[in-house]
## 1
Amino acid sequence: LKRRAVLGERRIIRTILEQLDQMPDMPIPFGDDVSAYSLGNDQVAVLKTDMLVGRTDIPRTMTLRQAARKAVVMNISDFAAKGVRPLALMTSLGLPRGLGERDIEQIGRGLNSGARQYGTYIVGGDTGEASDLIISVSVFGTTEKTSIMLRSGAQPGDMVAVTGPFGETAAGLRILSEDQRKPGRTWKTLVRSVLMPQARLREGLALSRTGAVTASIDSSDGLAWSLHEIARASKVGFLIDKLPTSEEARVFAQENKLDPAILTLYGGEEYELVLTIRPRQWQEARRAAAGVNCNLVPIGKATAEKHVVLNIEGRTSRIKAKGYEHFKRS
Amino acid sequence: LKRRAVLGERRIIRTILEQLDQMPDMPIPFGDDVSAYSLGNDQVAVLKTDMLVGRTDIPRTMTLRQAARKAVVMNISDFAAKGVRPLALMTSLGLPRGLGERDIEQIGRGLNSGARQYGTYIVGGDTGEASDLIISVSVFGTTEKTSIMLRSGAQPGDMVAVTGPFGETAAGLRILSEDQRKPGRTWKTLVRSVLMPQARLREGLALSRTGAVTASIDSSDGLAWSLHEIARASKVGFLIDKLPTSEEARVFAQENKLDPAILTLYGGEEYELVLTIRPRQWQEARRAAAGVNCNLVPIGKATAEKHVVLNIEGRTSRIKAKGYEHFKRS
């Protein structure tokens, strides 16, 4: 299971960035979900690459087909968050020696089903030997520079909204990692949220077209982390007054004596979009989401004060800038 | 050290390809060195991704900085072979826990120096934890579709040429893997060819502009393998009548009682270009190469008969479709 030390990762990225000469006039600054290259006439090529690593990112009960599909979905999700259509995918595979022909087949099928689900194709790639299974995926797309939903545009007063419920993957990962084989009636939905994640591509594309969105990110590192990322990039804070907890996650929390707020805020490996929206364009954004069968859920407001605060039933607390740490092993 | 089982790799790629729906009108078929996406008006986006894996691809004496640089160079080399200028690079890193801040710094420096040497930049990427060091690099470029030098255009009668000498990396890898610490006077050049590989980007771009090249590939899997790949993709054979053995490799072979032909043909991790050229445009190609300080070396001819044959001093033998197998461990 993925137990990314998110804070450690940020320091690593900073260290690497310090060594890099920066391309002049980069259309998207370092640190957003995707990168871009200017093609002229306001058009940009949009690029993304991220890898799935066997031992750290793939739960034991996930099939190779699901793992390969997920490697595609997590990359597509970043395009979704930016409102960019993926046009072509590349893959680079590191394969342990023990894999057989059937395993390779399953990896191919997973890659293809992820690509086709989001209307694109695998157009090439490379394979080599590795001690751990590595599925690296790269995405290419093009768009108008001004249409990209960055992390950095949120303004105080903007509404904060999400494209769906949270907490399912936090519960599902817990079920999978603790091998709870006799959990309650919500088991299937929760486990499925981990094994068959869905990128919110149609939602991201529809919302991008409205021009109502001021900032956007996917929630792959959890809702709390996503809010902090937008806050940091946009130099705002958030006052969250509604937790978008999934009904199934709420039942799971109750059955297992867990705090549903923790599952909702500090999960991860979920691919909802977290967006800020101009208040006067809220209805427009909501309608655009509804047009692709998405119920856009308002959860709070951006604030000038740079704290990320939860205010539920009159009780106020800080939302911490953390992802998985409560699950962290070793 | 890299000990890729090249034939096994081809079977793996075929198995994966069988699972993939193919994008209609792909500008470059599966199996060439790069992939492409049509942007309209004969323009294509060119994409490549490949990874370096710590335990299998990085000799023990290679520094992290050299390894990161090499991960860039091997990807740029594929663009060089196709005559396409790389415009932007992405990287995805899998980092073992043991790495410290200095190690990360060295990786960042290597990535940057590789990018800057070839006139481009790292524009983004991602990092995560992995049990083995993984440095995955993706390259983006654009070009006119018709200008791409594919593997598949060689015609019987075309001249075969290479951009430089062969055998140095085969010797260098041998020195590094056998920890020969007291080899002859050629040691530095040979080891350097492994640790600091050079992509023939200027050469590839200059040759592409002539329109004289009918097929091209880089020699990362060795000269023999490269010839067989062009032969297979172009449905031709080759009669090779000159072996472009490096002077240093020849001395090393003599000192170590090795066959220089084996070092020349069946090495790898070298990044010269192997090209076929229309005979009537040979002088044009040669001049273009000379313009970027490259001595284009003719080594034989493409033939209608589909064998890859070596004919030196009246003795004829088959060139085998193999890369590293004679070095293979385990």
## 2
Amino acid sequence: MAQLTETLLLFAARSEHVCQVIEPALKRGAWVICDRFTDATYAYQGGGRQVDATQLALLEQWVHPHIHADRTWLFDVPLDVARARLSHARTPDRFESEGAAFFQRTREAYLARARREPERIRIIDGRRSIDDIRVQLQDEIHTLVTATR
Amino acid sequence: MAQLTETLLLFAARSEHVCQVIEPALKRGAWVICDRFTDATYAYQGGGRQVDATQLALLEQWVHPHIHADRTWLFDVPLDVARARLSHARTPDRFESEGAAFFQRTREAYLARARREPERIRIIDGRRSIDDIRVQLQDEIHTLVTATR
């Protein structure tokens, strides 16, 4: 599949997700939690696939001009840790099957994005225990919810 | 489905079609004939769905910057003729199920596009007999092939 095809399909899926699920949920006052959103697209497609960032910015603006993630949590682990974990998991998907260079570019793009917006994009050290991470997330979500009340 | 979703899916499909089929065919020197290409997208999505033409122009430029149709034949019939023919055909698809206003906008957009580029986009009066139309197409294709030799 061409890289541009993949990017267009991702934004087509996001467009439906926004229209069918996210916008109605926000309208009824719900909080929305997504497993990956457009920050991930800048990392995987922009960094990993090296798709032109101006194309991604335009697609983002077309597909969800009025919606952005208030907070993104990036669960970060070094490549060797990710590899070791994946080897015990399910059959790899089309991204998980990529080589080390792809993951290196994706990770670097994501970390660079997080460094530019340190308040909005929070880096979670994924090598810590699940319990430790849960406590950190609970604290951060509590702070976020309190701040917006 | 949101109009933008449909547009992104169409260009995702076109991207694969261009990469997998059209470009390899052109590279080996073949002539390529498509049943609808991007002129149709300007008519159906631009005219019918009223998607912003600047979005269509950007997607066209991203997906096939170096490929354009040398000749487009628009088989045109009035709406009532199209309706009568469709009623005898298969189950209507998502475009064929649209109402008269959609087809009116699509047809007007396509005819306006043909008037702006009368040499490249040829209007075929679809009310004529199949034999008449075949003769006209054979003549035009012969002229086109001869001109490019």
